[in-house]
Amino acid sequence: MKRAERQRTVVAMVDGMGMEYFTAQALPSMQQLAATGFFQQVSAFLPSVTNVNNVSICCGAYPDEHGITGNSYFDPKLGQEAYMEDARLLCTSTLFQRAAARGIQSALLTSKKKTLSLLAEGTTLALAAEAPPASFVARYGPAPSIYSSEINYWLWQIAVDILKEHPEIGLLYIHTTDFPMHAWTPTEQRSQEHLQTLDRFLGKAVEQAPDAAFLITADHGMNAKRRCWDLQKVCERQATPIRYALSAEKDRYIQHHRTFGGTAYVWLSAPEDLEAVQQTLQKVPGVELVLPREQAAQRFHLMSERIGDVVVLGDQDTVFGELETEMETLEPSYRSHGSLHELAVPLILYNTQEVFSAAETFRYNADLTRWLYRDDA
Predict the structure, then answer these.
(1) What pLDDT does 337 receive?
(2) Contacts by 188-191, CB closer than 8 A, 24 or more apart
(3) SS3 labels along the chain
(4) What residue spans define the domains of the chain?
(5) What is the pTM (predicted TM-score) of this model?
(6) What is the rounded average pLDDT of the residues 259-265?
(7) For all residues of the chain together, what is the average pLDDT?
(8) Equal CATH topology for 3-221+343-368 and 224-332
(9) Is the pLDDT of residue 251 over 80?
C-alpha cells in the first residue's frame, strides 16, 4: 500500500456551496486550509444537481464513467420514471469500495438518506441524519429536520467524534444538505451563520485529526429563479408533442426546489420529430441551449443512453418541471440549480501526502478524489 493510502482522508462535500457562497463571508478554517494547502475554482458537472456531482466526487469519476445523469431518470423501454438512487445503476466503483479492497475502513455520513441508497456499499459505517440509527439518536439526540441548517451541524458533530474516537477509520466522507442555500441568498444572515458554523466544525475536525488529509468541494451552486416551464405542455401547444420531459433536478426533497431545475431531458415520440421539437424548444423564453443527445453527451461527459433524445438548458433565471399550467412565475424567494450557471465551486486539498506534479490539473470537482485508491494513480 502506498504511503498516501495509509493516511487518514476526510472528504467534505458541502452541498450547494458554490463560489458565491464560499466567498460571501469569512470562513477562517476553510480559508486557512486553502492558503496553506491547494485551492482552485473548478467546475461541477452538468446537470448541476446533487446525484450527478456527489457520485462524481464519491467515485472520483465523470458522469460518462459512473452513469448517473440526474436525480431521476426515465426508462424509455419501460415507459417509467424512477429516482436515480439504486446502487445497481453505478457503472464504476466508489471510493469506499476501492478503500475496502485495500483493507481500509471507511465511513459515509450524509444528511440525505438517498445518498446511502446510492453509495453505502463498501463502507464500514454509513449513516443518514434524515433517518439515523437508534444508537446515534441515544448519544446525540434526535436529528433535526432535513429542511433545516441544524441537521448539518448534528452530522458534523458525529464526524468530529469519529475522527477523535475511531482512528481506524481511514476514509471519512461527509455530505451535508443544501436546504440553507435553497432558503437564503449568500449575503443573508442565516445563510452566513450556516456556513460559518460548518467552518467551525471543520476547524475542530482538523484539530482532532492533524495527521489527516482534508479534501473539500461542492456539488453545485445556487441561484434565484423567476420562471418555470412545463416543456411537455409547451410542445403540446405548439403541435410538436413529445413522449416525455423530465427535470434532472427531480428528487424526493420537494420543499427544497419543488422538483424544478435548470436542465431538462426530452424524449421524442419518434426520431423524425427531432428538428421540429428542437425548433419549438429554442423559441421558449429563457431556454439557453438545446442539444441533441450525442452532442450533449460529448460536451458534458454524460452517458448517452441515460439522457433524453434532447437536452434543454435554462438561462440563469429559468427552470423546468411539471406544472398545472404551461409557465409559472416563481416567488421572489425561490432558489434552485441544475443549469450552466451553478457550476463554479471551490476545491481545496490540505495536508495530502500525495505529491502532485506541476502538470496536475484540477478542472472538475471529481478531480478532488480521482487519484484516491487507484493502482495507476
Answers:
(1) 97
(2) 190/149, 191/21, 191/24
(3) CCHHHHCCEEEEECCCCCHHHHCCCCCHHHHHHHHHCEEEEEECCCCECHHHHHHHHHHCCCHHHHCCCCCEEEECCCCEEEECCCHHHCCCCCHHHHHHHCCCEEEEEECCHHHHHHHCCCCCEEEECCCCCHHHHHHHCCCCCCCCCHHHHHHHHHHHHHHHHCCCEEEEEEECCCHHHHHCCCCCHHHHHHHHHHHHHHHHHHHHCCCCEEEEECCCCCEECCEEECHHHHHHHCCCCCCEEEECCCCCCHHHHCCCECEEEEECCCHHHHHHHHHHHHCCCCEEEEEEHHHHHHHHCCCHHHCCCEEEEECCCEEECCCCCCEEECCCCCEECECHHHCEEEEEEECCCCCCCCCCCCCEHHHHCCCCCCCCC
(4) 3-221+343-368, 224-332
(5) 0.96
(6) 97
(7) 95
(8) no
(9) no
CATH superfamily of 3-221+343-368: Alkaline Phosphatase, subunit A (3.40.720.10)
63: pLDDT confidence band, cut at 50, 70 and 90? very high
Residue 105 has pLDDT above 50, yes or no: yes
pLDDT category of residue 254 using cuts at 50, 70 and 90: low
Q: Count other Cβ atoms within 10 Å, centred on residue 239.
A: 8
Dist. CA 231–CA 326, nearest whole Å:
7
Q: What is the pLDDT of residues 79-97, one digit of tens each?
A: 999 999 999 999 999 999 9
Q: How large is the average pLDDT for residues 37-51?
A: 97
CA-to-CA distance for 335 and 260, rounded, in angstroms? 10
Please state, in angstroms and rounded to a whole number, the distance separating the CA atoms of residues 224 and 234.
Answer: 23
Kindly give, in sequence order, each residue whose CB lies less than 8 Å from that of residue 84, ignoring residues fewer than 6 positions away: 51, 68, 69, 70, 71, 72, 73, 118
What are 329-361's pLDDT values in tens digits? 999 999 999 999 999 999 999 999 987 765 468
Q: State which fold the 224-332 domain adopts.
A: Gyrase A; domain 2 (3.30.1360)
Residue 159 has pLDDT above 60, yes or no: yes
Q: Rounded to whole angstroms, what are the CA distances from 310 to 188, 260, 275, 281, 346?
A: 37, 18, 10, 10, 30
